């Protein structure tokens, strides 16, 4: 267990910087901080190092209230604290940065690719590609799981996006870097350079995919229709939406797996339970998503004055919700700091809520079930062969190094 933060210094204006500092997220367990903030109640006024103030909703009920009210808390600005100023360049054009009715119209363009029925058709291909990844590492007694499985998310999203397999490794690495995360603290100048490089890499790959005329049964093939819906000739709306889908899809599956493997490696009772199961069911996946909570926070901007949790929120203020905190809320989850593999009900918010609930949730769940089934089938025992290395990021709860010692079946 990492050391919890002991106290914090209050800023002169009453806004505390305690949950923005990205370095904290790779150095300690932030759950102790979030637990204290939940107990204090209300929304918490915070600030960034450059003085930008924002409100933070940490409790499950407050997170739900913000995510469920798109009329008061708009998505058409940015979803990450690191992107502020005039907002995201894709605001009002990319699917995750729009509000209804435009958001609903964009969703109709892509939803047919990600229904339960469509996901079932993808299942065979997902399993075949994941088996190839397992075949590539089978027999290795020790290896870095993150490096060996760098194309794991694109075994699911690559064909769906229409990205050539030759580009899967580079897009896998770039999507993590593009979310502002690194495995070591960086200067602000280096951080901005890394972000620029990652964004450029992804945009180049996706631009080439779009120019190749991808088929209609891929996300890239549907993106030109999204451009028609938005009707913004000043921006490349097709490219912005392709980018949004890639960034939204790639973190959830690998980071949920990484965090769950760390837990399984250190809990003999849970591993014993896991290997006795014939198949991975929905309850285990939901608990893995709750436990891992790959996305720490999501940003909204208030467009009207309101009061939430006894806190006055003014129009124009930035409001963050913290699903990673809400998913350990003692008021909602019995024994929230215990992984309960058959927990039911499970009101986790890893996929969000309301109109912006993850459009690709069925595909992500299918990928998670497939991976855990293959892990059970192939692995007799395993343990950590060194300390995991976590991302330096307040947005993505990520692992970039996961050394494992594996005994194969």
Automatic annotation (TrEMBL):
Keywords: Heme, Iron, Metal-binding, Monooxygenase, Oxidoreductase. Pfam families: p450. The keyword Magnesium does not apply. It comes from the Bacteria. Belongs to the cytochrome P450 family. PANTHER family: CYTOCHROME P450 YJIB-RELATED (PTHR46696:SF1), P450, PUTATIVE (EUROFUNG)-RELATED (PTHR46696). This is Cytochrome P450.
């Amino acid at each position: 267990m990492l050391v919890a933060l002991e106290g914090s210094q209050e800023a002169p204006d009453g806004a505390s910087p305690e949950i923005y500092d990205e370095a904290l997220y790779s150095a300690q367990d932030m759950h102790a901080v979030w637990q204290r903030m939940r107990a204090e109640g209300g929304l918490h006024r915070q600030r960034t190092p450059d003085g930008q103030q924002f409100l933070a909703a940490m409790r499950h009920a407050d997170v739900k209230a913000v995510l469920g009210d798109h009329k008061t808390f708009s998505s058409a600005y940015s979803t990450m604290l690191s992107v502020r100023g005039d907002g995201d360049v894709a605001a009002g054009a990319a699917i995750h940065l729009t509000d209804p009715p435009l958001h609903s119209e964009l969703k109709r363009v892509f939803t047919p690719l990600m229904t339960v029925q469509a996901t079932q058709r993808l299942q065979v291909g997902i399993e075949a590609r994941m088996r190839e990844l397992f075949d590539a590492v089978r027999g290795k007694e020790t290896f870095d799981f993150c490096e060996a499985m760098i194309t794991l998310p694109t075994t699911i999203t690559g064909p769906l996006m229409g990205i050539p397999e030759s580009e899967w490794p580079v897009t896998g690495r770039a999507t993590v870097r593009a979310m502002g995360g690194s495995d070591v603290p960086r200067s602000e100048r280096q951080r901005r350079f890394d972000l620029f490089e990652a964004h450029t890499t992804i945009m180049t790959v996706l631009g080439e995919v779009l120019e190749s005329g991808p088929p209609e049964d891929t996300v890239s093939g549907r993106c030109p229709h999204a451009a028609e819906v938005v009707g913004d000739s000043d921006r490349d709306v097709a490219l912005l939406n392709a980018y949004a889908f890639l960034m939204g899809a790639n973190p959830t599956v690998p980071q949920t797996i990484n965090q769950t493997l760390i837990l399984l490696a250190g809990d003999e009772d849970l591993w014993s339970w896991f290997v006795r199961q014939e198949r991975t069911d929905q309850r285990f996946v939901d608990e893995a998503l709750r436990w891992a909570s790959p996305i720490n926070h999501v940003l909204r901007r208030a467009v009207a004055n309101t009061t939430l949790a006894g806190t006055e929120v003014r129009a124009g203020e930035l409001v963050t919700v913290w699903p990673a905190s809400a998913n350990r809320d003692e008021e909602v989850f019995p024994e929230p700091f215990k992984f309960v593999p058959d927990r039911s009900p499970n009101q986790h918010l890893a996929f969000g809520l309301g109109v912006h609930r993850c459009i690709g949730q069925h595909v992500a769940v299918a990928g998670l079930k497939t991976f855990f089934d293959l892990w059970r089938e192939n692995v007799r025992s395993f343990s950590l062969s060194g300390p995991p290395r976590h991302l330096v990021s307040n947005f993505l709860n990520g692992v970039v190094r996961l050394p494992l010692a594996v005994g194969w079946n």
